[in-house]
Task: structure prediction
Amino acid sequence: MQRRSGKEIRELFIKFWVGKGSRHYPSFSLIPDDPSLLFTIAGMVPFKAYYLGIRPPEHPHAVTSQKCVRTNDIENVGRTARHHTFFEMLGNFAWGNYFKEEAVTWGWEFLTEVIGLEPDKLYASIYKDDEEAYRAWNGLVGLPDSRISRFGQDENYWFMGEQGPCGPCSEIYYDRGEKYGCGSPSCGVGCDCDRYMEIWNLVFTQYDRQKDGSLVSLPRNNIDTGMGLERLASIVQGVDTDYETDLFMPMIAHTCKKAGIRYGENGKHDMAARVIADHVRAVAFMLADGVLPANDGPGYVLRRLLRRAVRYGRLLGFEGDFLREYIPILIDVMGDPYRELADNRLTIERIIEVEESRFEKTLIQGVNLFETEARAAKGVVPGEVAFTLYDTYGFPFELTLEMAEEQGLSVDREGFEKAMEAQRERARAGSKQKKSSLGGDIYTELGNELPATVFTGYADSAGRGGAGKILAILKESDDGWTRADEAEADKKGAECELVLDVTPFYAERGGEVGDTGRIYTKSGVSAEVLNTMPRGNLTIHRVSVKSGRLSVGMEVEGEVDNVRRNAIRRNHTSTHLLHEALGRVLGGHVRQAGSLVSDKILRFDYTHHEPLSHEQICEIENIVNERILANVPIEISERSMEEARDMGAKALFDEKYGDVVRVVSVPGFSTELCGGLHVRATGEIGLFKIIRDEGIGSGTRRIVALTGMTALATIQRMSLMTARLTGLLSADESNLHAKTEDLLSETRRLQREIQAMRLKEFTQNVGSVFTQKEISGMTLQTGRFFQASPEMLRDVGDKAKSRYSPTVVVMASIEDGDCRLTVMADDAAVKMGVDSGALVKEAAALLGGRGGGRPNMAQGGGKDVERLDDVTAKIEALLTEQIK
Result:
């Protein structure tokens, strides 16, 4: 068997199936067009609609090397030979074309003749009753019965859900030899040891499972196969694990060199190197596909993987930011064919750098939590604490164990595993297929029946789209939107949805809102278009019938609200100018992360790590307005995806592109892929003004801007406000800022004087401010205040503590319907068992809020001020328990 690189294996697989007539699709995004999934988890996911019969396939059979992410067993990544988060799935697919005979014989041909695997080391498993698959393996391939295993439904049957497409499957195994076996006489295909390794799963989707569990033959037989590139590469390259293939080893080698270790000499070090390599791959590809760090969804998974990689780096002694060092290495290994890595390199590196830096703060918090829990632990750190450190702070269990051992403690592994399993159950429950657009609805039904809507709005810039025919009418009922033959005006303005064969109305997509306007007939029927939305290949017009009756088959005219549309055009073209200007001012890491283009504003989300300075905002505005004054004609063309990329066109992460794309260019300035509506020349925008820049997440910011007359009106309002302020302060524009600063400074000085006077009053009369009560040999002091700052409460609390010992001081400050609690305990009270943090946590809950802190001082609060008496009683009861 010839040794081949991972890249060669990928190319051979694609070339082989293209030679069999398959269409090659480049890898689809890691973010699927399926709300039931966080990530693309298998090669068939992008084709799911074909298997469900929702859309007809573009080609009868296909081949891909698909980027995938699975995160259900993160804790096993690096620990085992073949667990990964990111991996590539080689797959061939067919819909009503070839079936079992071809899938089996061609698969055998690829493995034995193209890759060169030894035929006598290959085994197959089939579903126990699948005689057709048996005949293919035995009769056509010539595999003897001794190398064909029959298994039941759990092992060799595939279901898409409780109902829907399903079918038997056949798996191909490779015998790696006795040294990988368990030594058991019964060792064979299906054994848990590493000898017989599954390399390819062939799924024969031929049935439709009904609600009662019965199976009905599908109208056409389908093929869905999947083979892990990393797994096949390990066999071809003759290495023990996937991590030792050329897909991982360059990054592992970098880790070893940086840490001064040798791979294979220390199990803990090897695991750390494997985790870093795996997680860097996943993080980089997620970022390249537009996933950004967040506290939920795909962004949470990204952040968790990045932090886990950082923590394993710390185990190897790495300090400071280090993950971005791996990106050039990854690009060398996988930049061909995944050019999105190189195209987005600056963005990937910058976001990783920012996230690493921010994790340092979280890391400190995690260490502090561990230290607190370690002091309270009686020989064993609770499993729940280890899980919190793992899940919230990114601490691998091994790190917690190591930190515990340094302090002579152990960790409750059983409790940790129990918490982990509970999380897995939550993940499994959340990942079960939900009802989604892929499940089929009225729009799916219409899409299968009706031709795609023809959009005339590009050519018809005025939006008077001429005649069109109503193909369908939908009305809302208790069961949702259902089909109707007609819709008639009433006093309320009957709302319905229309599907036309031809329309000038742009349907909302790519951040641009849908058109509004009216649909009418020459006979006097009229409907106001409230919104325009895409549903598959159809354009849905939400309308309110104003006069007459609309009916299916009727010829109608469409007229877009052009004042509104022109405002949308100005804002959309301005987002392109803004995108380019941001990159020029801030750097190449800037990338669009979302947008809203309406007639009133434009909102632009972008990747950047810090707020814009006033000087940067002015520079960006100047660049955009210079292009507007130049009145540059906009160029729009259709290109192949490769041509567009070669032109340097920016592509947006959340858009799905076909083979032919629409390219919008401002010559000499910017080029983007875009299906939206734009001005004819930049001068039509008139004016561009940024009104807000704000953070919306880690490494993501949002600009809100205005154009045209809306921008002018805002500038006029700002000018009026400036004039009014200069009049009030007897200033002019040159010293307005200084006079305002002086006024604020004087106000702050007076506030400090007032606070100082109140503090003096409280401290001099502290005996009358607090109520005292003896509890189990300790003095509880309680006091209520109005609009007292936290600093004042701490000062008053310190004075109160000096009057008694042991003592606990409870202070409540009421302001604007909120109650702020501060609890302080002196050292003697803490030694008796008092924990201020626990007291505040329970007390704040009574107020409908939260709180916590250290044993000697804690803060919290809530809005249920009327329960302050209950709070006092609760603290008295808790103190009695604590002092015991």
